[in-house]
Amino acid sequence: MKPGNIMLGNYGETLVVDWGLAKVMGQPERAGDEKTLQPRSRSGSAATVMGSAVGTPQYMSPEQAEGRLDELGPASDVYSLGATLYTLLTGAAPIGEGDFESVLKRSARGDFPLPRQVNAEVPRALEAICLKAMALRPSDRYTSPRALADDVERWLADRPVGAYLDPLPTRIRRWANRHQKSVSAAAAVVLVSITCLAVGLRIVSRKNSDLRTANDKEREATESARRSAALAQASGDMAREQLYLTRQQLAQAAWQEGDINRLKDLLARQRPESEQADLRGFEWHYLDALCATEHLVYRGHRLRVNTVACSPDGRLAASGGFDGEVHVWEASSGETRWQKHVNKMSVNCLAFSPNGEILACAGNLGQLSLYDVASGAEIQRLEGHGVQVFGVTFSPDGKILASAGADGTVRLWELPGGRALHVCRGHQNMVWSVAFHPQGKLLASA
What we know:
four-stranded antiparallel β-sheet; elongated; Transferase(Phosphotransferase), domain 1; 16 strands; 11 helices; 18% strand; Methylamine Dehydrogenase, Chain H; alpha+beta; single chain
């Protein structure tokens, strides 16, 4: 097989035009018109005699050039195809011109320049395919011409070839070409992340600038007060008063900006040391009361609290949570008046009646329960929604109870008795809350 025996048809087909040395595998050879190379002796030497030369030495495999005719097979064809590929890549035969004997010796040794030494523009992957096909030992070559063709087709399709490991950048580019959607999505995510980071850094920078400006103002005010104190050592009280006023102004600004820690620090600096007059006035105690941290905490729920309500007289507070419990507390002390597990799931809403005697609650089981506030006993259970109830409220006169649920309805109940008065429909989705007009003539829902 050599370039001179291969032609391309009008439609791109490949034609082999000289089958003079063809051999059918698995069948005895038939004598032809051409003579084959014969070994010089049977001593195992690789030397051959020329005789009537059959074939072109520049494209012979090493085993053919050495006369090891019993080793000729598909691997020899792979070598010849590799030599043909070599010529296509470089424009020259692998073995240069010379007398027949020297050409045979160089063919037997695999003595030929690398394709890229002849043509530096030859792709490295194609060079690797060519060199694998022209390996000196048949076992190192492609197992068949089909395997060689597959590697060439992979290169043409811009896919990895078996004979060569591409550099990392090439593999990354090839992967990106095969996964363009993923790469585009990742690029979009990176772009959005960079944009968000830039916006965040700009916001932080602006906040830091504002903080530096505030600190500069404080330093300037403090320095101004110190200079005033140095100039009026004899009137130290006047300097203290000036510093006090300046810090009070800064404390007021800190409160307006919501910087509680800074406010506390400024107020602490105004506390008089021993033997100093106390300059603190109403303005100081007012700000100190605003940032006081003392408060009352009601503890008892095992899970998150969903809803709270206060009795009309403000003496009681009620809470309901994810634990399905209702707790009623003394508002002033935080002591528990009573608690009940009223729902297997969650308590979503609570409401005291206008007279403070009844507590209505509802949750995810779709029912409303009315409890006696004094004893905690269940008075009545109202059912109608069938699904979660999110809002409940009493009319101003306490004669009607309204509820809102996930079924998209608002239901009105008569009290006492619990008779269903009306079902208000019209919402396209869940109803979350209801509220009566102060005169009880209108009902709002959302």
